[in-house]
Amino acid sequence: MYGTHKRTTMIQVGKPVRGTAFVGREKEIKEILNYIEIGQSIVIIAPRRFGKTSLVTEVLRRLKTKKKYTGFIDVFEHSTVTELTRSIIAEVLENHGLKKLYQQTKGSITALLKNIKLKAVVEDFEFLVGLEDDSIDQWTNFSQSIDFIDDFAERHDKDLCFAFDEYGDILKFDKADAIIKLMRAKIQKQQKAVYIFSGSYESVMETLFTNNKSPFYRLAKIIHISYLPFSDLRRYMVKMLKGAEIDYDIKLIEDSIDFLKGHPYYCQLALQQIYLYHLTQGKAPTIHGLIDIITQSERGYLVKTWEDTSSNKEAVLVLKHLSTESTGVYAMASREKINASRTLKKLEGAGIIYQEKSAYYYYDPVFQYWVANTIK
Question: What are the start-end ranges of the H helices in 12-162?
Answer without folding.
Answer: 26-37, 52-65, 81-93, 99-104, 109-114, 116-124, 127-130, 138-155
